Amino acid sequence: MIVAIGSDHAGYPLKAHIVEAMTAGGIEITDFGSYTPEPVDFPDVARLVCDAVREGRAFRGIMVCGTGVGAAIAANKIPGIRSAVGHDSYSAVQCVEHDDVNVLCIGAQIVGPTLAAAYVTAFLGAEFSTEPHFRRRVEKLHALERTAAMEWLASEDGLKKS
Predict the structure, then answer these.
(1) What positions constitute the catalytic site (predicted)?
(2) Which domain holds residue 155?
(3) Interval 25-63: pLDDT, tens
(4) Do both 107 and 61 map to the same domain?
C-alpha cells in the first residue's frame, strides 16, 4: 500500500511523526512536502497529494495543516477527491465507510502524534460500505461535482478561462 502525504509548515512536525509511524507499520509513503518549517501554501501541496490519489499512484492521501480545515477545503476542490477532517477514530473510519473519502486531513494544532497515527491507521483500514444507500449517496456527490464543473464551464468566467 502506498499512501501520499503532505503538509504545510504548520503540519510539518506532525507529518514527520505520522510518516515514521506508518513506515514502521510497513506502509510505503510518498511524501510531497513540506520538507522544512519554512512557510508553504497548503493548496499547492494538496494538489500534489490529490493528484497522486486520483492517478492511482497512491491508495489514499493524508494532509496535515494547522487545523486540517484548509487542507480539506483545498482537497475537496479537486475533482475525484473526497476529503474530510478526522480528529477522532470514529470519524476517520466513518468517512470512508459512508462517504468513500480518499484524503484524510488532520490538524497539527489539534491532535498530537500518537492520536494522529491512530486516526491514520483507522482511516487506512476502513473500506467503503457495500450498502446501497451509501453507494447511492456517493454517486450523488459525483453528480454534484460533474454538474458544478459543467455549470462553471458554461459560465462567462469558465468561457473566458477555457
Answers:
(1) 65 (proton acceptor), 98 (proton donor)
(2) 130-162
(3) 999 999 999 999 999 999 999 999 999 999 999 999 999
(4) yes
Set of cell numbers at residue 149: 464543473
Give 106's Cβ-side CA count (13 Å radius). 33
Q: Is 105 a catalytic residue?
A: no
Tell me which of 98, 105, 133, 142 is the catalytic residue.
98
Residues 137 and 122 in one domain: no
**17 belongs to the catalytic site:** no
Domain count, the chain: 2
Q: Among the options 50, 65, 95, 105, which is catalytic?
A: 65
Check: CB of residue 17 under 8 Å from CB of residue 117: yes
The structure's pTM equals 0.90
Mean pLDDT value across the chain: 92
Residue 142 above 90 pLDDT?
Answer: no
154 vs 43, 111, 143, CA distance in Å? 25, 42, 16
E strand or H helix at 83: strand 83-85
